[in-house]
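fyi for ur records
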Amino acid sequence: MFSKFWALFSHDIGIDLGTVNTLVAVKGKGIVIREPSVVAIHKKTRQVLAIGTDAKKMIGRTPAIIEAIRPLRDGVISDFDTTEAMLRHFIQKVHQNPGRLPKIPRPRVVIGIPSGVTEVERRAVQDAALSAGAREAYLIEEPMAAAIGAELKIEEPDGNFIVDIGGGTTEIAVISLGGMVLNRSLRTAGDELDEDIISYMRMRYGMLIGERTAEDIKIELGSAILLPKEKDTIVRGRELATGLPKTIRISSAEVREALSSTINQIISTIHEVLEETPPELIGDILERGIIITGGGALIRGLDKRISDETKMPVWVAEDPLTTVVRGCAKLLDNLDLLSKVKVTGGLR
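which gave:
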């Protein structure tokens, strides 16, 4: 009863706690925050200096006394205190006192997490959310949240195949009757694609570039198939042999070559899941197709490449970057479904 009363006044929120970006949706208001999962701290005092967009601008540019870090790696918490500070910042940002009451109650929070995390890693996420100010914290596996956000009918006795390619993990799952029949959590995703580009530039051109530059190259030139019209761009970095600045022009064909190994690994894992899928569900998937979401779904031609190699139709979800957080937000309006699909969760 008290939970329902507090829910009238608190701003319940859904969070996609991503390795690269954190998205926050408020019940009844939609997505209100899309910021990088980066925190800048003072090395000696451990004081938080900046969070999100402001902190990302500092990557590769900070003096020795300041460190810009990503507190999540491969979809799990690598720095608990920094993750808690980041969550507290986002929760407080959307849960401000509107002036109607002397004190607004703490929110109920639904958080998407990778399906392959351990019990200890789940507990770390839940504890961080509760310590950051949540009244209740529920954890939902990302492929399930993505399927809900993509408007798939997960409670029906039909097979749904979803691939969520995020920054830290690639989540692959077959969903039916409100549960995951099969799933794989591959810690190979957007971060590895960036690393592929950094390695390629080092090996091919003897040139060192940073994470931000690699990400920009991936977004501008990344592709999984031959493009009708290849593109190129100017890249600036540091020559390893001399330590001096260096400028080169790189083509989309070269970037495709750099990304091929990681893309092949993701497609190979999709093949493995399809091979293990029960025959009764394969027919549904063949009819409905494979749905891809996450930032990786935006790589040019990836849907066609997966379709060609699996011999199945492949669709990119609408606004693939937000499917997980939209799924978390939908569960705030459907507590019965939340109770069925949650991994863990509850009160402090």
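The chain has twelve helices and 19 strands. thats all i got for now
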